[in-house]
Amino acid sequence: MAVTIYDVARAAGVGISTVSRVLNENANVSAQTQRKVLEAIESLGYKPNIMARNLSRAPMRSVGVVLSYLTNPFQVAVLQGIEQTLAQAEVDLIIFSLESQDRRKTLLESLSEGRRSDGLIVVSFSLTPTSIARFQRYNIPVVVTDNKDKQLPSVFVDNVYGGYWATQHLLSLGHRRIAYLQDHFKAPNGPGGNWPGLDRRRGYIQALLEAGLDVDLKLIHEGDGHTRQRGYEAAATLLARPNPPTAIFAASDMLALGVLEYARSQRISVPEDLAVIGFDDIELASFANLTTVRQPMQLMGSEAARLILSLMNGELLTKRQCQLPLELVIRHSCGADQSIHNETKIHTLPLERR
Amino acid sequence: MAVTIYDVARAAGVGISTVSRVLNENANVSAQTQRKVLEAIESLGYKPNIMARNLSRAPMRSVGVVLSYLTNPFQVAVLQGIEQTLAQAEVDLIIFSLESQDRRKTLLESLSEGRRSDGLIVVSFSLTPTSIARFQRYNIPVVVTDNKDKQLPSVFVDNVYGGYWATQHLLSLGHRRIAYLQDHFKAPNGPGGNWPGLDRRRGYIQALLEAGLDVDLKLIHEGDGHTRQRGYEAAATLLARPNPPTAIFAASDMLALGVLEYARSQRISVPEDLAVIGFDDIELASFANLTTVRQPMQLMGSEAARLILSLMNGELLTKRQCQLPLELVIRHSCGADQSIHNETKIHTLPLERR
DNA sequence: CTGTTAGCGCTTTCAG
DNA sequence: CTGAAAGCGCTAACAG
To answer: What is the mean pLDDT of residues A89-99?
Structure first.
C-alpha cells in the first residue's frame, strides 16, 4: 500500500520505534540516526497515517456539521457559533455540505455508517427516519438546529411567533394587504419535522385572522431558496398583481434584500410606498437598514455544540429541546445616525398558542 | 477505557465478528443474534471508534483548512470553493479557525504535529518558518491562498495590479485626492510573505506616481480587520481632515461598505461628492452597487483544493504557483436595471512591473 | 450463520 | 540511545 514506518525503518537501517521517536521529536535520538531517518523519510516520501496515529494515542474527537448551503449567511452564522464552542473543547469540526442534490443521499448514507465523526449537528435540515435509526444504532448523537425535532435534541426559535410578530408589526403600521414570501412549501421531512418557513407562515396567518383580515392566498409567494434573486423575482410578481400588497414579510433577510432591490429598480420608495420586513438579521440587514426579526444565530450554533458535546460525553440530558429568544429589530432609514433610532424588542417566552 | 466491540461481544455472548457484522449491516446474521447484539450495544452505550474503523478499512483522507475569520465573507467564499472540490474527491474538510488570538499558537503547533489532516490549506495567513519546516518533515502538503508564498504552493491574484487598477479607475474619473484604506501594515509574516493589503498599496502608489501626483501619507489609513465598523471609522477620520479626499479606495468591500455607510449617515452622496471603490466583490457589493475589483474567490478555493489533492496523491507539480485573473466591476447606482449598466473588464496576465 | 485469527500503521513500555 | 514486542479497536478473510 502506502509507505509505512516499517519501510522507513528498513531504509534507514533502524528499528521502527526509532523512526517513531524522530517523528515525535523525542530527544533520545542521536543526531547521526536522526539524520539517517530524516533522509529515508524524505526519499521515500513517507507520510504518517493519522488514523493509525490517533488509534494508539489519546483519542481525538470530531463532530460533523451537515449544512445545505455554505452560501447561506444564516447557516454560516450558525456555523460560526458551532466552531467557537467546539474549538474550546478541542474537538474537530468536519463540514459536510449538501450543496449538490445528488450528493445528499450518498453523503447521508456514509455519515450514518458512522465512518467519520463521533457526533453530528444538522443545520436547517431534517433527517429521514431510516437515517435517524441508523445513527441510533451506532449511538452517535445527533443535534438538530433551526428545526424543532420531536425525537432528536434540537435548538430552535419560536418561528410561529416570529411570523406572527413580523406580521403584527406591519399591521400596527396600518398595512392591510401584506404579502408573505418563503422558500418552498415542501412538507416536513420525517416525523415531527416542522419547517421554519411553514411555521412563520402559520404565525402570519394567525396575525391576519386576529386582525379580522382575510388571507389572500395570492399574497403568499413560494420561491426556491433564500437568495436575493428569488426575492427580486417574487417582488416583481407580487407587485404586478392587480391590487398589490403594500407590505411584504419575507421569511429571510436575503429574500427581503431582493425585494428591496426590486423596489429600488422600480423607484418604489421603502417604507413609504412599500413596507418590508425580513427574518434572521444577518449582517447585511443592518447595512440595508432592514427591519427584521432577529434570530440568535451564533448562539444557536454554540448551544447546539454544547448539546452535542455533553451527549458525546454520555451525559443523559433531561432538557433536550432548547428554544432561543427572538428579537424584533426596527430600523429607520432616516436620521443621521441610524442606530440611535433602532428599536429592539425581545421575546423570550413562547406565546400561548394552539 | 471506553466500551469496545469486545465488551459488546461478551455481553451478547457472541464473537466480535458478529458484532462487527451487525454494525455493518451484514446480512448474514440471524434475527435472534442481531437482537441480542443490538441490546448489548444499547445497554452498554457502545460507540464505534472511527479511527480504528478507518484503520482497517479503505483509508479516508481529510484536508484541514486554516482560516482566521469565519466571519469574513472573502474567506467564506474561498471556503465554499474548497468544499466543493474536496467533496467531489470524497475528502473530508476539517475547519481550523484562528478566531481567537491565543488559540493561534497552540493550534498551529498541534496541526503541524500532523495529528489531524493529510493536507492543509491556509487561507489569508502566513506560516512561520518553523511551522513550515515541521510540515515538511511530516511530508504534509500545504497550500497557501490569498498570499503568494515563495516556498509553498500558492493561489493568489496580482494584488499590485489590483491596487493599481482601482486607483487608475478613480484617476480616470478625474480624482486627484484619493485615499487608501487597508487593515494593517503588519510586515510580511515569514520569508517570502507578501500581504495583499501591502501589495494593493504598492499598486495604489504606483498609479499615483505615474499620474504625476504626490503620495500624501495622511491619505493612507490603517485599520484593524475588514469590517464595516472599521471602514466607517476610517471614513470619518479621513473626511474630517482639512483638504479631505474626493475618492476612497478600500482594500476590501467590507471596508468600502463601512465608508458608504458613513457617507450615507453624513448625507454625502456617492459618487457625486465621494467616489468609492472596493476590492473582492463579495455578494454585498452588488447589492450596494459598489464598484470593485473582483477576485475569483470561489475559484481560488477550488484551485487550492485541486492543488492539495494532487500533492496528496504524491504528484510532483511543476506549476506550484497559480495566479488568477482580476476583474474590474464598474457599477452605476442610477438606472432602472443596474445590471445593464455594469461594465466588467478582465485582467488575466500580470502587468509588466518592477 | 458464527467464531478464530490476522493484520491496518503507529505509539509505547520494556529490555538491552 | 535503540530494538523487540505488545497492543489501540476494528474489519475481513478463513474455517467451521
So the answer is: 85
